[in-house]
Amino acid sequence: MSKARLALFPFAIFYDCITRFKNFLYNKKILSSSSFDIPIIVIGNLAIGGTGKTPHTEFMANFLKSKFAVAVLSRGYGRKTKGYQSATSASTSQQIGDEPLQIFNSVSGIDVAVCEDRTNGVNELIQTKKPEVIILDDAFQHRKITGSLYILLTTYSKMFYDDFVLPAGDLREASSNKNRADIIIVSKCPADLGFLEKKIITGKIGPKPQQKVYFSCIKYLKPKIICGVEPWQNNQTIVLVTGVVNPLPLKDHLEKMGTEVQLMKFADHHNYTDLDVLLVEEKLKNAGKNSVLVTTSKDAVKLKPLIENKDIHAYEIPIQIEFLFQEENEFSQYLIEHVRKV
User: Fold this and answer.
1) Is there a contact between 78 and 93 (Cβ–Cβ < 8 Å)?
2) Whole-number Å distance between alpha carbons of 54 and 318
3) Phi, psi (5° rounding) for residue 203?
């Protein structure tokens, strides 16, 4: 823990007491939660972002949609609207948020909606869309709804058991709350993670007998054109524009392709402006004639409307998750059996 965060330790103790008391009230049913007659899969994390919830949500939605009517409900962080909003082909990130729009664009044949009041959002979805299963995105701490299945993500590079609560650490609540999860996924692992290290990590997590622990990694897919017509080349200079928690893995991936990468890092969920685009254009000009803009799928939904009429060659790098140790079939079958039995 850094000296700056160590100085915040007393505030973290106070924050920890508040969250523990809130969870105590829910655990003892002093505070009530709403239950529903359909499966509600809750996915989330203990830390403040950057664990890969969106690609895992996309994976589950893609898999389940072949057998069930699937809906995804999110708060819609960063949007400029209020209340319940259902995603359509005309939706923008300003209306529903960047991650819900990314999910809607990436997974066809499902319903995506946002609502800051998750209970109202679930009720609205059930009444209007009639899903057979709802995935609640980033809702592990949202205890006003009782989920039927809880999936907790923790990042390989910063496991929850090595962290502390805010503001001294990055946890929204104490690590002991991992016990509420039915499934714990260690995300963003190295693709070559060894079996021995898997055993060590699982031991440190200390799962209960009924808890499942899985391991996943991020796979970068082929660059996808956002605007411009030039085919991808590995020898071009890249201006990497991101508004994510940690862009360094993507930067490393691009550099391994033999390209020079100049990073323009914005805050997570950054809403891009025309001024930002001017800065990007200046960066591209200085980078040379063959420079191109590269970004994430999450950022692409916000950047595309601002750059599509400009003389910019831009690409997004889609990602998907892969389960390690041949765990995908076990995880997928677990989901199917859960949805069928609820």
Assistant:
1) yes
2) 12
3) -65, -40
**Taking phi first (over 0 means left), then psi (-120 to 50 degrees means alpha), and beta for anything else, what does residue 228 get?**
left
211-225 residue pLDDT tens? 999 999 999 999 999
> For residues 74 and 29, what is the distance between their CA atoms, to the nearest angstrom?
25
* Crossing angle (nearest 10°) for helices 98-106 and 297-307: 100
> How many CB atoms within 10 Å of residue 167?
14
Peptide bond before residue 55 is cis, with ω within 30 degrees of 0? no
Given a contact cutoff of 8 angstroms between Cβ atoms, the answer to whether 136 and 115 are in contact is no
- Distance separating alpha carbons of residues 252 and 258, to the nearest angstrom: 10
Q: For the segment 51-66, what is each residue's pLDDT rounded down to a tens digit? A: 999 999 999 999 999 9
Q: Can you state the percent helix, strand and coil of the chain, rounding each to 5?
A: 35, 25, 40
Residues in the chain: 342
Helix axes 98-106, 53-64, angle to 10 degrees: 30
pTM for the full predicted model: 0.94
User: In the beta sheet, which residues pair with residue 217?
Assistant: 322
Comparing CA positions, the residue from 275, 278, 319 lying closest to residue 300 is 319
Nearest alpha carbon to residue 219 among 241, 243, 191: 191
Give CA–CA dist 341/119, Å, rounded: 22
